[in-house]
Design a protein that fits this description.
By secondary structure, the chain is an alpha+beta fold. It has a domain at 15-199 and 275-292: Brix domain (Rossmann fold). It has helices spanning 2-26, 39-53, 69-79, 117-122, 150-161, 207-213, 226-231, 238-243, 304-342, and strands at residues 30-34, 83-89, 94-100, 106-115, 139-143, 178-184, 190-202, 249-251, 266-273, 277-286, 294-297. Strands 1, 2, 3, 4, 5, 6, 7, 8, 9, 10 and 11 form an eleven-stranded mixed sheet that branches. Helix 5 links the parallel strand 5 and strand 6 (178-184). The longest helix is centred in the C-terminal third of the chain and has 39 residues, at 304-342. InterPro entries: Brix, PPAN-like. It comes from Scleropages formosus (Asian bonytongue). Residues 28-291 form the Brix domain.
Length: 348
């Protein structure tokens, strides 16, 4: 019996390892780094964006002055990295690049405004930031990206592919602790980047009952009877009454962590901003990884005919490349055949 259990345990471990490797390969991973001299504030912004992308990012990635983009590309392949987020700074602007490995596209953004995590948190009376929030990836919410325009659709696809997909029918709500909101303004063509902490609380309870649910004993010196603790609606705080409403109250499809959050019961979803904030504007989109045809430029407009002509030229180049590769393979095969024919025969 002992041997059979040991064999079954080994099989289970191998199976679990195989499943973990398959899941790891399907989840997008990222490198967030800077190029050139960026200063202390932009350097801290890089660390804050890494915080947002956790846990599927290289949190302790070291960048040297001598490193070039090819160094990161060569390391990214074995590690399963799918996206680059690169910051740079000029005397007048802060720029951000989003690149999809290994064939692009690459998107260039101008960072119009940004606020660091420490500044956002310091402005709050009560912040909600703890290490457990960063053990799972955030929930991505895209707002107003459904308008017409190739560049808007490409941006939406790029942002979606940077975060793991979520199956709404199978997801465990208890692992969703953060939310990333990207809001596109059609008029100014700017993107508002926000990062929130997510909390779910039951509604319809007084503050005293909530404290009892949390195993905390409320103050009862001003109460004449225990029924006031349970029934008096005035115990609801003004801040809670103002926050909760039809916009954030929902019926939970499953039990959520926290006292009182039961399945099929009304609970309020509350968001607390934890930073960083960024206001982005798309400058251009390139076809490859930092090199290739320009698919979109905010300052230069191209007609559909010009874009079709660009795509045709690209297809012709790819066909020529494939033909050259086939020709090279045929030449190598012929050389091998000649070597085999000219190889001397050993006489025993």
């Amino acid at each position: 019996m002992g041997k059979s259990r040991t064999k079954n345990q080994k099989k289970a471990r191998l199976n679990a390892l195989r499943v973990a490797q398959e899941e790891y390969s399907t989840i997008p991973h990222s490198f967030v780094f800077h190029r050139g001299q960026v200063g202390r504030n932009v350097g801290q912004l890089v660390m804050d964006v890494r915080r947002v992308m956790e846990p599927f990012t290289a949190r302790s990635l070291k960048v040297r002055k001598s490193n070039v983009l090819k160094d990161f590309v060569s390391v990214a392949g074995p590690l399963g990295v799918t996206h680059f987020v690169v910051f740079s700074k000029t005397p007048t602007t802060v720029n951000m690049r989003l690149a999809r490995l290994s064939k692009g596209p690459t998107m260039y953004f101008k960072v119009l405004k940004y606020t660091l995590i420490k500044d956002v948190v310091s402005s709050l009376k009560r912040h909600r930031m703890h290490q457990q929030q960063f053990t799972h990836h955030p929930l991505l919410v895209l707002n107003d990206f459904g308008m017409e325009g190739m560049q808007v659709k490409l941006m939406a696809t790029m942002f979606q592919n940077m975060f793991p997909t979520i199956n709404v029918h199978k997801v465990n709500l208890n692992v969703i602790k953060r939310c990333v909101l990207l809001n596109y303004d059609r008029v100014s063509q700017e993107i508002e980047f926000r990062h929130y902490s997510l909390k779910v609380v039951p509604v319809g309870m007084s503050r005293g009952v909530k404290k009892l649910m949390q195993e905390r004993f409320p103050k009862m010196s001003r109460l004449e009877d225990i029924s006031e603790l349970l029934m008096k609606g005035a115990n609801l705080s003004e801040s809670e009454a103002e926050q909760d409403g039809e916009h954030n109250i929902t019926e939970l499809p499953q039990v959520f962590s926290g006292r009182g959050n039961m399945c099929s019961e009304q609970s309020a979803v509350r968001l607390t901003e934890i930073g960083p904030r960024m206001t982005l504007k798309l400058v251009k989109i390139e076809e490859g990884l930092g090199e290739g045809n320009i698919l979109y430029h905010s300052l230069v407009s191209k007609s559909d005919e010009e874009l079709q002509e660009m795509l045709k030229k690209k297809e012709v180049k790819l066909k020529q490349k494939e033909e050259r590769k086939k020709q090279q393979e045929q030449n190598i095969a012929k050389k091998r055949e000649k070597r085999e024919e000219n190889k001397p025969v050993e006489v025993l």
